[in-house]
Amino acid sequence: MAVAVEISLAEAASGVKREVEYEAVSACEPCEGTGAAAGTSRETCDVCKGSGQVRTVSRTAFGQFMRTGICRRCKGEGSVVETPCEECGGRGAVMANRKMEVDIPAGIDDGQSIRLSGRGGRGDRGGPAGDLYIQVAVAEDENLVRDGDDLVYHQKLTIVEAAIGTTVMVPTLDGEQEVEIKPGTQFGEVVRLKGKGMPQLRGRGRGDLRIIMDIVVPRHLNGEQKEMLREFARTTSEKNYHSDEGIFDKIRAAFS
Ligand SMILES: [Zn+2]
Ligand SMILES: [Zn+2]
Q: Which of 67, 78, 91, 238 is the Cys-Cys partner for 52 at CB 3.0 to 4.6 Å?
């Protein structure tokens, strides 16, 4: 059986304890799972004499055949309830609410589940209990997108900020962090904050936070602004746009 749990990205990074509540087939308390009313107990089945099996002999033209089958009276249990427990009607099991605290490990990803063996419903005829699966959903973060062990953040920059450089505050899992934007930053450039990504689920390493630069071109310029940009354009030359690595190579690198 399974229980769904939703956690935040920050909780997925740090690991978190969550109380889960679920209904599972559990041993009936008044009869302690026997199915027999208080003061009585299960009695040995008089059909199979407690073995749970019956032998039937059939005679055919080819001879005599012996067949072993499950006792119908006790359904193979070897014992029967003469006076059924009122709580469970003699089944020995009831649906009961359970609560438990689950440790969700750091680094867990959306859609993964945790198996808790023996925490599921009670098995038939006193058989072993089934497993409980905690299905973990990691809610989308408003700023950070997960990519494996890395986190990705898109930083918007104006063309002015990208050209002359600035410092920006970038959201990380440990709060905001100041990041320097160097002059001449191009669209699609990536700044990596080492070790600021997600922890590995079964390791000690941690991914990076990749900050991808989105350069926003201003819209709705008035006449004066357009004139200033034309004036600016007249002062620039090929040299201002020169790069060792062409801008299109960088864009291609960012998308590859
Ligand atoms: Zn029987
Ligand atoms: Zn009972």
A: 78
Dihedral-angle region of residue 223 (phi above 0 means left; psi in -120 to 50 means alpha; beta otherwise) = alpha
Tell me whether strands 150-158 and 209-216 are parallel, antiparallel or unpaired: parallel
In this predicted model, what pLDDT tens digit does every residue of 53-78 receive, in sequence order? 998 888 888 888 888 899 999 888 89
Amino acid making up residue 14: S
Three-class SS state of 61: coil
DSSP bridge pairs for 3: 134
Q: From residue 39, how far is each of 28, 83, 125, 174 by CA, in Å?
A: 15, 10, 21, 61
| CA 53 to ligand 1 centroid distance, Å | 7
CA 92 to ligand 1 centroid distance, Å: 17
For residue range 171-229, list pLDDT tens digits in order. Answer: 999 899 999 999 999 999 999 999 999 998 877 899 999 999 999 999 999 999 999 99
Are 42 and 33 in contact, with CB atoms under 8 Å apart?
no
Tell me if 107 sits within 8 A of 148, measured CB to CB.
no
What token pair was written down for 242? 């020169």
Ligand nearest to the CA of 27: 2
CA–CA distance, 147 with 10 (Å, rounded to integer): 14
Neighbours of ion ligand 1 (CB under 5 A): 45, 47-48, 71, 73-74
d(CA 98, CA 96): 6
Phi, psi of 234 (to 5 degrees): -65, -25
